[in-house]
Specification:
It is built from seven helices and 37 strands. By secondary structure, it is α/β, with parallel strands linked by helices. It folds into two domains: about 220 residues, Spore Coat Polysaccharide Biosynthesis Protein SpsA, Chain A (Alpha-Beta Complex), CATH 3.90.550; about 120 residues, Hexapeptide repeat proteins (UDP N-Acetylglucosamine Acyltransferase, domain 1, 3 Solenoid), CATH 2.160.10.10. The strands form five sheets. The protein has a 23-stranded parallel β-sheet that branches. A seven-stranded mixed β-sheet has the order 5-4-1-6-10-7-11. A three-stranded parallel β-sheet has the order 30-33-36, with no helix packed on it. Helix 2 links the parallel strand 4 and strand 5. The longest helix has 21 residues. The termini are far apart. The structure holds uridine-diphosphate-N-acetylglucosamine and calcium ion. Calcium ion binds next to loops. The site of calcium ion (CA) has 4 residues, from loops.
Length: about 450
């Protein structure tokens, strides 16, 4: 039996943020969500999250995850004190407790799985994940004998000059035999520089405690400040990009691209420079995204091109070309073989197949049929100052340049709309509609001051 406790009660003072540290985001997921995710493969029977600073915010951010047990640490008196808070919840529990610092977001699930396996195979009282790194400053130092049996962990600030030379660091990931930890925890003291109850102090009270070095020390980078957050983002981006490159995606200038871990890409997708793919985004085979595009929570089908454009919360069907400089948002749904061109904004618009909206348009709260040609500068006037209204335009209709549709309005199929029309009433199928002032031509006209017959 295995329970997991994630320590997420600290403020993270060094982040200089009002947001609790564990809610800072890396590639679309908060630090605490990441660490919880890395613990899914060990299949814990219970999952505790210790919350304190900003506890309501942290609980809310994790509300979508099932079966979490939140334990309040009212005062943040240290990592040992944090784990003490689960004692009443684990009375009589005979299994192991995996303790994870909430600010170690890059751990791979396989690493944790192997770590727990080693702990159980050796029947340790405790096992500590460690790493030997060139720049250990800031981390607790782990002192071991030759058999990797831990004698002591000393925090960086409490180390003597000689102790600081030790490059073996505590990753903040531990597995404990719970019955033994439950006895040791109440005995730790706050006799250190910070006057906090340090979880690593329990190692002096338990036996045997084994250190296990992580294979890739990048995985255990802790996040205490914005610089470390930025560094971790790079590590994560490299990992995500390596994955997609191996899966048959072309990334042109990968360093200028960011991809959230939640994104799904098909083989033969090409991502051009300065492009960012975020949230629940999928891109189909043969599509070319970028340069200079942002796609968020959107489904892009196969063989689509998106050039210098922003697509949020929208769906684009196959072989459609978007951009340059288009903006799709608010559940825009664009059909196949369409062209959405320069300076076109689509908001909550459903567009049929092979429809073109090529220049300078705002189409909001609208349904357009197939093979519609939307002339340059066509606008749906969807807002009367109080409410949004719908515009419907039928198949094969052509709207003249600079036409305005004052919603609510329905334009039939195969309608031709004269340029510059302000259309306020519904139009049936197969009509020509012109709604503009008739052109007036006055022959032989001159401005008043140039007229011959002018008096005085
Ligand atoms: C901790 C370890 C250090 C280790 C490092 C690895 C201790 C005393 N030190 O140091 O040996 O090398 O992690 O990254 O444990 N937290 C609480 N309640 C508290 C205090 C902290 O829940 O009262 C949580 C924080 O939200 C954070 C985690 O515990 O997620 C670690 O706390 P932090 O202050 O970042 O510890 P470090 O100084 O990094
Ligand atoms: Ca930390």
């Amino acid at each position: 039996m295995l329970a997991v406790a994630v320590l997420a009660a600290g403020r993270g003072t060094r982040m200089k943020s009002t947001l609790p540290k564990v809610l800072h985001s890396l590639a679309g997921q908060s630090l605490v969500e990441r660490i919880l995710h890395s613990a899914t493969t060990v299949e814990p029977s219970r999952r505790f999250v210790i919350v304190g600073y900003g506890s309501e915010q942290v609980k809310q951010a994790l509300a979508h995850l099932p079966d979490l047990e939140f334990v309040e640490q009212r005062q943040q008196l240290g990592t040992g004190h944090a784990v003490q808070q689960v004692i009443p919840h684990l009375e009589g529990f005979q299994g192991d407790l995996l303790v994870l610092n909430g600010d170690v977001p890059l751990l791979r699930p396989e690493t944790l799985e192997n770590f727990v396996h080693q702990h159980q195979a050796h029947q340790n009282a405790a096992t500590v994940l460690t790493a030997q790194i060139p720049e250990p400053s800031g981390y607790g130092r782990v002192f071991c004998n030759e058999q990797n049996i831990v004698t002591e962990i000393v925090e960086d600030r409490d180390c003597t000059v000689a102790q600081k030379q030790n490059r073996r660091i505590n990753a903040g990931i531990y597995c404990f035999s719970w019955p033994q930890l439950a006895i040791a925890l109440p005995q730790i003291k706050a006799d250190n520089d910070q006057q906090e109850y340090y979880l690593p102090d329990v190692v002096k009270l338990l036996s045997p405690v084994m250190a296990i070095d992580v294979e890739d020390s990048k995985e255990i980078q802790g996040i205490n400040n914005r610089k470390q957050l930025a560094e971790a983002a790079v590590v994560l981006q490299d990992r995500i990009k390596d994955y997609w490159l191996a899966a048959g995606v072309t990334l042109v200038d990968p360093r200028s691209i960011t991809i959230d871990e939640t994104v799904e890409l098909a083989p033969d997708v090409v991502i051009e420079p300065q492009t960012h793919l975020r949230g629940q985004t999928t891109v189909g085979s043969g599509s070319r995204i970028g340069p200079g595009s942002l796609i968020e929570n959107s489904q892009i089908a196969a063989d689509v091109a998106v050039l210098y454009s922003v697509v949020s919360d929208s769906t684009v069907a196959a072989q459609t070309r978007i951009g340059p400089y288009a903006h799709l948002r608010g559940q825009a749904v664009v059909g196949a073989g369409c062209r959405i061109g320069n300076f076109v904004e689509l908001k909550k618009a459903k567009v049929g197949d092979r429809t073109n909206i090529a220049h300078l348009s705002y189409i909001g709260d609208a349904t357009l049929g197939d093979q519609v040609n939307v002339g340059a500068g066509t606008i749906t006037a969807n807002y009367d100052g109080y409410q949004k209204h719908h515009t419907k335009i039928g198949d094969r209709t052509k709207t003249g340049s600079n036409s305005v549709f004052v919603a609510p309005i329905t334009i039939g199929a195969a309608v031709t709309v004269g340029a510059g029309s302000v259309v306020t009433k519904d139009v049936p199928d197969d009509c020509l509609v012109v709604a503009r002032a008739k052109q007036t031509v006055i022959p032989d006209w001159k401005p008043k001051h140039l007229r011959q017959d002018q008096t005085n």
